[in-house]
Amino acid sequence: MFKEFQNLINQSYPNLYKQRTLIAVSGGIDSMVLLHLMHKANLNLAVAHCNFTLRGEESDAEEIFVKETVADYDYEFFVERFPTQSYAAEKGLNTQLAARELRYAWFNHLAELHNFDHIAVAHHANDKIETFLINLSRGTGIDGLSGIPEKNQKIIRPLLPFSRAQITAYAKENNIDWKEDSSNSSDKYIRNKIRHHIVPILEELHPNFLNNFLQTQEFLSDTSQIVAKQVEELKSILFIKEDGLIKIPVQQLKVLHPLRTYLYELFKDYNFTNWDDIGHLLDAMSGKAVYSKTHELSKDRSFLILRKIPLKLNTEFIYEKLSETIHDPIHLNVTKVTEIEEKDANTIYVDAEKLNLPLIVRKWHTGDYFHPFGMKGKKKVSKFFKDEKFSLPEKETQWILLSQDQIVWIIGKRADQRFAVSPKTTSILKIQLQP
Amino acid sequence: MFKEFQNLINQSYPNLYKQRTLIAVSGGIDSMVLLHLMHKANLNLAVAHCNFTLRGEESDAEEIFVKETVADYDYEFFVERFPTQSYAAEKGLNTQLAARELRYAWFNHLAELHNFDHIAVAHHANDKIETFLINLSRGTGIDGLSGIPEKNQKIIRPLLPFSRAQITAYAKENNIDWKEDSSNSSDKYIRNKIRHHIVPILEELHPNFLNNFLQTQEFLSDTSQIVAKQVEELKSILFIKEDGLIKIPVQQLKVLHPLRTYLYELFKDYNFTNWDDIGHLLDAMSGKAVYSKTHELSKDRSFLILRKIPLKLNTEFIYEKLSETIHDPIHLNVTKVTEIEEKDANTIYVDAEKLNLPLIVRKWHTGDYFHPFGMKGKKKVSKFFKDEKFSLPEKETQWILLSQDQIVWIIGKRADQRFAVSPKTTSILKIQLQP
């Protein structure tokens, strides 16, 4: 298997040899094999391990196991303990989804901070069939059946062409140790059902099932690309941009066939999912509208009008990366610097290591407090506003920058002490409000 | 369920009320329920039952069961006993495929002969998921995942929107009797595995699995239509028709992306299935060619040349219907007549009931014999040629018409006695060689 892995790297990821890769290692068989293969391929690596603190001692034992393995390899090691349950409860997510959000936000944060070019995760071919069948059971379109991408921004999945059987055999041959995750979360449960009960029967139906499936999925993925290209061409004809909104002639939509699939494809990028509603809109009276979480689509005589939903006071602008620029609702430049430069009300310097993603920009909420820079202890934002003699309109137009739920900056007014640069700081971010 | 069935007929098959439908009834629960529903809907019906003689007494008991049920309903009844095993052995097919060929050929034959407008078969929603998973295990493209068509020429499938659970419930409520097919053929075996072991788990994963799946399949079917339309447009641009062949500029093929899926879609109607071979042809030297069972695709400098494979001496031209016209390799008009009209060497009259599909036109094979019209007993074709003083080129250019493996006509020379019109004949076909 190593030879095939090496061929894959040479063909699909030739840059890996000169660039830096962060591998996500849970301690399970897949990621331990990935680590072994990438190490053997002599790549420039570091390892990240998420401790989701979901299984008490077992989680901690995994953390120690990975840490010790990585020490043997002598790679840089990052570990983070996440309060997954409380994050999930707070966000109204199931545990799996919460863990995924936390994991990828942290990986991207590490990659930004330490200049990793790639983040390698250990998905393999059997994950594709499992995802395919889960999506099939929930209902999906061709996109949901077209597989897991090999590359997606910084994320790479070099085990994707290999089956679980190949990975297991490689682990055995190379005496690779791993920890079996005992978790029985709903997602694991579903995947185990598919793995143990459905896939073996499909393999009975056709001994070459997995390969046939993978080829089928490549066909679907190609077909989906063909459709996407056609839909883009169609958009360039039908979507007329005008003053920050888009006008679409209803008559030209009506002649599309099959209509509902065209409507789905044309509007999915604007977060619309219900083609029926859009279908009804074609024949509705002027003034009728349907909404996605980000957009409004309304009927105006012979046109549909597509526009972003105007801001509401309680809107949060969420940034999942330590990005160069925050552009909505205000413009903040975020740059890495080696030392503190000029200081003014529109600039702060923070310790990048102390920030947690996502960064959020929003208005003030009742109950908000922060640790004003240069002071000991915390202060309610409402008290700060009062002390600073803010008028009501001033309060309502004041933007606040947060790191997860902690205030980093009453923007343009006062920074927070908790994120301040200290003698121990190794990575400084300069955040500057642009006029 | 009857109300939904009636709505479906009104919406999708409104012509059924004034036209004639032949229902295929095996005696199993699905076809017995279909018969009950179509009877209750007051349609103009007749029933066909295939006895595939695969399960001895059980097969015969089913035949009698269906015959008696149909007698109660007072519908016209057709039954045919097929030597399925020997047909399968002869054609090198598995039993299921052989039975399917025989069944549909006979249904179409009956429909032509007795002027049925539709042939109703009892496929239902669960058949769709089974077919989907079988095709998935064997490898397929989007077409193989897009479902079973509701209409296909004369075949209609009015149970397709209904689930097995609905059909079973309807049979119970209406005290419908049926015969359980004990057969354990490979196809049944596969379908049973899927039915009993895979689908229940998928239903555990999502209680609304079947509906979600059906909706997904409709999406795939729509997507497939979008691609088909685009490929037709592409063909109208790229495929240049010239003197019975098609020229396709190689450069314009090469820029297509994703290439292999475009190549597959562009050439599938010409029976090419291996896009890799076609892909290699794009860069091959002039003169290289690849073949499907019907077509040759060759490289000629900057073009691919697509043409029908020229006739070989052993080519058989197969006609699956009692069609109006046979056009290859010679032109035979086939028309229904009520009595024998003019007679000449280029015209014969046959008893349509005695013909079996497929009709075949081919050259003479060593060992062929027939029953010359007006004679008692059979004669070797080679002996006939000798007696008629055929030259070698005359033997080699002589075409013969067969009904399955029986000679109907040494075309333009002598008819066969076995298919001759007799006083009992109720349906006469006139077959006339066009110059």
TrEMBL record, chains A, B:
Gene Ontology CC entries for this record: cytoplasm
Compartment(s) where it occurs, according to its Swiss-Prot or TrEMBL record: Cytoplasm
Keyword Ligase: yes
Gene3D superfamilies from the UniProt entry: HUPs
Molecular-function GO term, any one: tRNA(Ile)-lysidine synthase activity
Residue positions binding ATP: S26, G27, G28, I29, D30, S31
Catalysed reaction, written as an equation: cytidine(34) in tRNA(Ile2) + L-lysine + ATP = lysidine(34) in tRNA(Ile2) + AMP + diphosphate + H(+)
SMART domains registered for this protein in UniProt: TilS_C
EC number: 6.3.4.19
Chief place of localization: cytoplasm
Pfam families in the cross-refs: ATP_bind_3, TilS_C
Domain Lysidine-tRNA(Ile) synthetase C-terminal residue range list: 359-431
Keywords on record: ATP-binding, Cytoplasm, Ligase, Nucleotide-binding, tRNA processing
Entry's Gene Ontology BP terms: tRNA modification
NCBIfam families per UniProt: lysidine_TilS_C, lysidine_TilS_N
Alphabetical list of PANTHER family matching this protein: TRNA(ILE)-LYSIDINE SYNTHASE-RELATED
Free-text note on domains in this protein's UniProt record: The N-terminal region contains the highly conserved SGGXDS motif, predicted to be a P-loop motif involved in ATP binding.
Family: Belongs to the tRNA(Ile)-lysidine synthase family.
Function: Ligates lysine onto the cytidine present at position 34 of the AUA codon-specific tRNA(Ile) that contains the anticodon CAU, in an ATP-dependent manner. Cytidine is converted to lysidine, thus changing the amino acid specificity of the tRNA from methionine to isoleucine.
Protein name: tRNA(Ile)-lysidine synthase
Species of origin: Pustulibacterium marinum
